[in-house]
Amino acid sequence: MRKTLQIIKDRAGNKDQNLHAGEIIDGHFSDLKNPPSLAALKLYELLIKYAAYNIDKNIWHNISVSEMQKIKGIKNYNSTELTQLLKELRAVVMEYRAKDRTIITGLLDIAAVISNPDTGYLEIQWKFGESFRDLIAKSEYWAIVDYRTTLEMTSRYSLRLYEILALRINLKHKNSDTFTLAELRGKLGVPEGKLKRWSDLRDKAINVAVKEINQRTTFAVTAQPKKMGRSVQAVEFKWERKEIKLPQSIPLKTSKSIVFPLDGSIRYTQWEDIARKNLPKPLPDLDMVAQQFRKWLKNKNISSNSIN
To answer: In this structure, are strands 28-29 and 94-98 parallel, antiparallel, or unpaired?
Structure first.
């Protein structure tokens, strides 16, 4: 099993995270006449989430609309609206680079809206295409995104840039990347003929995305235009992960020592509940919090089972 698919399977139970193959995140919209709307991109995030560890399988996935209505950030859609969003996703043409190949494919192979007028039951079903599934099955790198954050985004450019940065945020020897304006339009999904002037692209896409990412996520990002002569030809993005400010003290209602795990995740433990109640929002990656807390304990020479 390749690395990305294994990580997807390992983290399928994590309700806060969504995992994407890096090749897909780094792809671009090949047809910019009708790129997907923000609502369609959010629905796509939901389809990825609910496909979970079966994402590489040639099977029907499904979710009821009543279940969708429980998800913050997903609108209460009717049958007609869902059909339109699925049509948007079905029409998307993406271009991906995978080693020695350039792959042109779509996001969905087929989708259906199932309704029962007698009971009012409504659900959507979908299948991912063969090329899409093959790309995930062979993928060697991935992006971990905060699922709830993607659903809270107010701009499709913010959502796409956030995913692009999530793919790069953990690189050890790189904290910037430069894209030509043409590359950026393709990656963000700027509709053909729109935001043609640099000032419009900057003000209505790039600045909007940078501001929202800085406000909503644990990333700090800047965008710097790169000129050739007097005209802007590219944009350099620089990023870093915001420092997680751990609370000075966390009251525990117990007289017994609670051992902090020496390795691994704190998910599905009482430490996850403590973290959720005390950490700043948006909630940082809990695995990274655990690593930082272990480092802090070591530096302070505090035992992992200290009562305080």
So the answer is: antiparallel
Please write down the long-range contacts of 102-105, taking CB distance under 8 Å and 24 or more positions apart. Answer: 103/131, 103/135, 104/30, 105/129, 105/131, 105/132, 105/135
**Structure-token pair, residue 70:** 């429980």
What pLDDT digit, counting tens, does each position of 81-104 carry?
Answer: 999 999 999 999 999 887 788 889
Q: Do residues 156 and 168 lie in contact, with contact meaning Cβ atoms separated by under 8 Å?
A: no
pLDDT digits (tens, 9 = 90+) for 209-252: 999 999 999 999 999 999 988 899 999 999 999 876 666 666 65
pTM of the model: 0.81
Instruction: In whole angstroms, give the CA distance from residue 135 to residue 129.
Output: 10
Q: Is 286 exposed, middle or buried (0-12, 13-18, 19+ CB in 10 A)?
A: buried
Do 70 and 148 meet the contact criterion of CB atoms below 8 Å apart?
no
